[in-house]
Design brief:
CATH superfamily of the largest domain: Alpha/Beta hydrolase fold, catalytic domain
CATH class of the largest domain: Alpha Beta
CATH topology of the largest domain: Rossmann fold
CATH architecture of the largest domain: 3-Layer(aba) Sandwich
Largest sheet: 8 strands, mixed
Radius of gyration: 20 Å
Strand content: 15-25%
Distance between the termini: 24 Å
Helix content: 25-40%
Structural class: alpha/beta
Order of helices and strands: EEEHEHEHEHHHHEHEH
Number of strands: 8
Number of domains: 2
Number of helices: 9
Shape: globular
Length: 294
Amino acid sequence: MTEVPVFIPAGKQSLFGVLTSPDGGSNSLIVVNGPGGPNAASFQRNGVATRLARHLADAGFSTMRFDYVGIGDSTGDLVKFDLEKPLREKVNAFLTWARAAGFTRFGLVGICFGTRTALSVMDNADKVSALVLSTMPFADVMTVLSRRMGTSGLLKRLLRPATWKSLSDPGRRRSYGKLLRSLWRRSTGRRPDRASGSRPSAMSRLQAASNSNVPVLMLYGSEDRHYLNAIPSLESLQGVVSGLEVDASYPGELHGFPTLEGQDVFVEKVVNWLTARMGLSDQAPAPVAAEGGS
């Protein structure tokens, strides 16, 4: 197994990644799209992405894990992670580099926010052989909250003194802006054309994967809030998106990888599933040369 640092141009920025490959190389590359927030670096919490990459190398896959803009060794300023704005151009930059480097088959692994980034390139699905989406949020917290609280509950929350004191925080202002828009939609009888709060882009990208016969695995813990919020959306996908598997058998929370046990389960399930869906028997190993730089 070898691990090589690489720097990939992405617009005005340079993205840092780590290419992990089995001895002799591989034609198949798995691109890991990490979560947002404090665990967005390429190695992720307790090095779970590093362990995933090394286990995938043992199974015969090369893996690319990378830092988002403004994180770790990537250049630029840290941006707000927004489900409506997945970092499509970043993962596309790695796919473009990988094709030039000789890779011919690709799998995508997305974790939380990274699931939306992975899905955002599914219009290029002819080059993707398998897709793993771990703890994917179908709607942001404020969308779910507005749906649950109702109009009177939203008004009470927005009129609390503590709410107004918190508006000095730009992030809080954006969040409460979403609540106000939700309140307006309710008062006017307007409803977004979504399945239980899921964003049309996520649904359409999943359908694109289905249309291209790309198998999809969605992983959750049985107590993940993203899973509990997504159950209506997941039910609506049954029979609509072929090749979709939903595994919420892990007891407890998988989101954020709060336990080592959960991390190990995640690694094992992803490796086993990708190995079964992207068998390597028809592939000849291909050496890959990665260039470092600044």
